[in-house]
Each structure stands twice: as structure tokens, then as C-alpha cells.
UniProtKB/TrEMBL annotation:
Signal peptide: none annotated. The keyword Ribonucleoprotein does not apply. The chain crosses the membrane at residues 21-42, 62-80, 106-130, 142-163, 170-189, 222-240. GO terms for molecular function: ABC-type transporter activity. This is ABC-2 family transporter protein. Its main location: membrane. One of its GO terms (cellular component) is plasma membrane. It is a multi-pass membrane protein. It comes from Leptospira ryugenii. It holds the Pfam family ABC2_membrane_2. Keywords: Cell membrane, Membrane, Transmembrane, Transmembrane helix. The lineage of its organism: Bacteria, Pseudomonadati, Spirochaetota, Spirochaetia, Leptospirales. It is found in: Cell membrane.
Amino acid sequence: MISFQRLSAVIYKEWKILFGTSLGFTILLLFMFLENLFFFYGAGPSSFWDRRSSDITFFFQYTSYMLLIFIPTIGMRVWAEEREMGTIELIFTLPLATWEIVLGKYVAFLAFLFIALLSTVMVPITTFVFGRPDFGLILSGYFGIFLLGATNLSIVFFISLFFQTQIASMVFSFFLLFTLYFFGIQKFTDLIGIEQFSSLQSISLQRHVETFLLGILDVYDFYFFISVSGLFLFFTYWKLRERN
């Protein structure tokens, strides 16, 4: 039985680590700065001022790319740091169930992801000031991006268990997420010559988040993200239990 009190203690511990140093604030501010920079002053004619449109679909598209770097950066330390500090064994001597440790850490990082996305709120606010954007599209886009980030985070959680250093965890997680994301882009699959493995496109993260970015709430895509997240969290739990 999972105890909410013990779960809260794990979440609080993770938040103290995230914001106890400048790392958490630095990553958060950098994410907010880059997101707003690309939207308002993007390369070439892609900026908000050049496009003269209240459609922010392209904002969600490059945010999904940003998550490929942002999630491995914040998630690299979840287990690798415990290994570096030699505290991963100590965790299991505490009166905590393995599921409470996994879920506590995961919820703490999900909250961090939520705050990061909330920091981009000036983007939709600006579009409402200068135009009449589709509010449903904005909600759907943010929901899809959050699901994508949550799924990426669950994958990084599992990957981090296999590395002794945070940098190695981050680099491998980035390449894995990059591959899983771009499987859904035809130009990418043509470039690396995997047309014969077209079935792999069904597991592409890009394919499943695309419908949300277009303002479509698809139950199948929602189920995909929830299932993948749950699967990798279970893998993490199973690996930790095996280690314990």
C-alpha cells in the first residue's frame, strides 16, 4: 500500500535537490528564455512578428524538439547522481516501498516539467493580445506536450539506472529519444534507409503528439503515451527491485 505521507517525503526531497542549488533554476530560466526567444525572434521569417499570425502550432512543434534536450538534462541525475554519491543503496534502507521511491521521484520531476511549460505562458497571452487564436488548440497543444514530456521522462528514468555518470545518462537518453521521435518523420526514415521497417513508425513519439498539436484529442494517442509511461515506470520499478 502506497503511503501518501512517504510519497510526499520523496517528492519534497527531490524538490530540495532541484532547487537547493542553482541547477534547477538555471535549467528553468534557460528553457523559458529559449522558448520565448524562438517564438518572438525565431530564425528568419519564422518569428511571431514576421509571421503576423496568431496560430502557435509552430510554437508547440519546436517545443517538442526542445524536450528532447530538456528532459535528458533534468532527468540525467535521477539515479546516476545517486550512484555517483553512493546513496542509491542507502535509499533502500529507508522505510520506503520501491514504488513510493519511483513514483515520488517521477511526480517531483513532472511538477518541474509543468512549471517549465507554465513559464511559456506569455506566448499564448501575446497571441490573444494581438489576434484571436484557437483556445482549444492551445489547450490541446499544451496537453500533448505535457504527455510527450511525461513519456520522455519515464524513458529517461529507466535509462538512468544503467549509467554511473550523469553525462553518459544524458547523452544516451538524448539519442534514444531523438530516434524514437524522428521515426515518425518520413524524411528521416528515408535518410537513414529504414523504409522496410515502416512498422517502427507506429512507436514514433512524433506521430502520436502531432494530433494534439493540431488540436485533435485522440484517445488512441492518449492511451499510447499513458501506456508507454506506465511501462517504463514498471521497468524502473522491476530493475530496482532486482537490484535490491
